[in-house]
Design brief:
2 copies of one chain form a homodimer. By secondary structure, the first copy, chain A, is of the alpha/beta class. Chain A has 2 domains: about 180 residues, Dihydroxyacetone kinase, domain 1 (Rossmann fold), CATH 3.40.50; about 140 residues, 2-Layer Sandwich (Hypothetical Protein Tm841, Chain: A,domain 3), CATH 3.30.1180.20. The first copy, chain A, has 8 helices and 12 strands. In chain A, β1 and β2 form a beta hairpin. In chain A, α2 crosses α3 and α4 packs antiparallel against α5. The first copy, chain A, is globular, with a radius of gyration of 19 Å. The mean pLDDT of chain A is about 95.
């Protein structure tokens, strides 16, 4: 295993400490329960928006904590749901009179943690609601999932409900918006390589030198098939068809288009992939009003990418363009 | 070679096309001479700031074209200096009454291209000046370099002269600022893996499963030595000593601290590295007033990182904090 780590069991906490040291004014860290939260949270004039999920997908979700985004993130270990008591602790810490919206990607562990934590929170008079994200069109059920998996589409849910929460919308309205976004966002990913969780010490899967995993999950779950590598444009074409054909997206739609790197793919290649996706949108008369090229939801150092499309209307376009702050400096 | 590419000879142009498709309002592309430039450039009330260098280091430099940053970038092929006639073309395109500042990292090919291009530009009455960046403390001379190499410190030069140019400073003043920044910025990098230029089709160097290249260059040039991999904190310690000890940085200094990924290293590991670097700054009583964690100057998909320190005074801190825009959307 060739990584920048010290003791593998400290991987998550040392990453979190780095994030806190880099953002001393805006972020806080409750170390004993893995919670990163906004320095100004909880704010009693708004719903707190939080996410619980495994680590290893950074910037999701600890680096999406900020104004107009998440109020707090409570990650588990790498590729592991956060323990139920951490989620309860996060509920207590972020409790406001307007309640808490909890976002989870559709994995059984994350959902189970939420179910148990909600019960305990309700016993303490904390009101919480849930929005589940399941945007991955690759496969129906999967290794850790009943139904579809939640992947990079999560970003759009965070952005929309984060913006609406900032504007003072109430919990029911945020649930409506979150579900609406999840209803119009679709993704698919593929891998050129596996990745190695630090505590495991070996790759979760391996691919031959000319092999890809089409439809891979962000924890290395199998996709639709193994295949030989092909020219980038052909890969984009297949994935674009799968994603755009699922909703389906139709001629004249206004969309957001995301090319998301899975951790080990350089931004040069991501723009090369974006080129083909943007040209396909043009061919299909889909108007890209917002685009995203970079890393949003990764699988450690996996080389690969995913494509996400979201259909926008006036309400969602406004929310996507609302001001937001994240803890990652670009310049 | 496992990459998202089509025809390897189209790698750079397809990446550039992707960048243009993602930024139709703010960027322009002169395809026949590989020039990406601001849609509002040249502006006759300011010096044009441009950079010529090889591709494969993205976001440097085509993704650093924007307000308060570069007016134009004219890259060559992967790891190859831009042809002299492309640079001349860029001078002509970006010419303003206030002149042109050209930035190059210290590689012989880039400097030679500049020398020849300047002569031709001067014959046409175009005034240009040069700032050379050579921030890499790893080795003295190197494969393509007499003197030290220029690496991620380049970002700070772009940021400072870009901000000053936006404020209307003249060419001589920008040269002074650029040289001042280069005088107080120091970097060092290391690799866990090599990387594969698309047209070459095989790695430029390989490392064993437990091996690192300490002091690697951004084109895979040899560093100080090959070594066994060590815990991240030990690697940071050695590199921090080399960088901080070079200027040297002293107790009480205000600094900017950058942890730069080389392309294949996930942001989780970069924050883990940042943690140790920030703690070392604290130990040495260096006050980090600006921090940068992410990818600024890469070597294709190389796994590795570099550390950069810059000593700030009031002038440079103000320039670092000036508004700027780059074409990479984060959210």
């Amino acid at each position: 295993m060739k990584k920048f780590i010290n003791d593998p069991t400290h991987f998550v906490s040392e990453m979190m400490e780095g994030l806190i040291l880099a953002n001393p004014d805006t972020l806080r860290w409750k170390k004993d329960s893995n919670i990163i939260y906004r320095a100004d949270a909880p704010r009693h004039d708004k719903v707190s928006v939080i996410q619980g999920s495994g680590s290893g997908h950074e910037p999701a979700h600890i680096m999406a904590v900020g104004k107009g985004m998440l109020d707090a993130a409570v990650p588990g270990n790498v590729f592991a749901a956060p323990p139920m008591d951490y989620i309860v602790e996060c509920f207590k810490l972020m409790n406001t009179p307007k309640g808490i919206l909890h976002l989870v990607n559709n994995y059984q562990g994350d959902r189970m943690g939420w179910d148990m934590a909600r019960e305990m929170a309700e016993a303490e008079g904390i009101r919480t609601e849930l929005v589940v994200i399941d945007d991955d069109v690759s496969v129906e059920n999967s290794t850790y999932t009943v139904g579809r998996r939640g992947v990079a589409g999560n970003f759009f849910v965070i952005k929309a409900v984060g913006a609406a929460a900032e504007q003072g919308e109430d919990l029911d309205e945020l649930v409506r918006i979150g579900k609406k976004v999840n209803g119009v966002v679709r993704s698919m990913g593929m891998a050129l390589t596996g990745c190695t969780p630090p505590a495991k010490g070996e790759p979760i899967f391996t691919l031959a030198d000319d092999e890809i995993e089409m439809g891979v999950g962000i924890h290395g779950e199998p996709g639709r098939r193994r295949d030989k590598i092909k020219p980038a444009d052909q890969l984009v074409e297949e994935m674009f068809e799968a994603v755009a054909g699922d909703l389906p997206f139709s001629k004249g739609d206004r969309i957001g288009l995301m090319i998301n790197g899975l951790g080990g793919t350089p931004i040069s290649e991501l723009y090369l992939l974006y080129r083909k996706a943007a040209l396909l949108c043009r061919d299909r008369d889909l108007t890209v009003v917002q685009n995203y090229v970079g890393e949003y939801c990764t699988a450690l150092e996996m080389a690969g990418y995913s494509i996400t499309l979201i259909r926008l209307d006036d309400e969602l376009e406004t929310l996507m363009k609302a001001p937001a702050e994240i803890p990652i400096r670009t310049f």
